Amino acid sequence: MTTLKIGDKAPAFESTDQNGNTIQLEDFKGEKVVLFFYPKASTPGCTAEACNLRDNYQAFLAKGYAVLGVSADSVKRQLNFSNKNNLPYSLLADEDKAVIQAYGVWGPKKFMGKTYDGIHRTTFVIDENGRIEDIIAKVKTKDHTAQIL
C-alpha cells in the first residue's frame, strides 16, 4: 500500500500524543523508532498488538528503540486506550491524518464485502539516521514484537 521503501528517508512528522504533548520524529534523532499504525483504539486486534508491544517494551528499550503508535483517534480516545491497557509509550492522535498520509497507510479496505477507506495496519522501523530499516505490512497482532526484533 505505502510507496515508501526500505532505505528511504522516513517522512518527518509532528503530532499530538495522548497526553497533549507535541511529538516529532526529530525528537528521536540518534534513536531507532518503531512507528506502528493501527486502525482504531480499543478494538480487539489493535488492543492485542498494543499489548504485545507493551509486554515486550523493555526489550525494545534495551535495543535502543522508541515505540510510537499512530491512529486517527482523538487525544481523549488515545488516552483512554493507553490508560486502560497501561501502555508505556506514546500514542499519536493523528485526527487530520497528516502522519497517516505521509506514510501512505490510508486507503481502500474490505470488510465483510464492503469497501471503505481506512488505516492499513503497518509498522515502520526507522534507524538512528531517520531512514526506514524495515516495513511490516502483514502484522501479526499477537506476536508483533517477534516480527520487529
Structure description:
The chain has 5 helices and 9 strands; from the N terminus they run E-E-E-H-H-E-H-E-H-E-E-E-E-H. The chain is an alpha/beta fold and 149 residues long. It has one domain (14-148): Glutaredoxin (3-Layer(aba) Sandwich), CATH 3.40.30.10. A 5-stranded mixed β-sheet has the order 5-4-3-8-9. A two-stranded antiparallel sheet has the order 1-2. Strands 6-7 form a two-stranded antiparallel sheet. The longest helix has 12 residues, at 44-55.
Largest sheet: 5 strands, mixed
Dominant shape: globular
What fraction of residues sit in β-strands?
25-35%
Which runs of at least 5 residues are low in confidence (pLDDT < 50)? none
Number of helices: 5
Query: What is the CATH-assigned architecture?
Result: 3-Layer(aba) Sandwich
Oligomer: single chain
Query: pLDDT average, as an integer?
Result: 96
Integer tally of domains: 1
In spatial order, strands of the major sheet run 5-4-3-8-9
Q: Determine the CATH superfamily.
A: Glutaredoxin
At the first level of CATH, the class is Alpha Beta
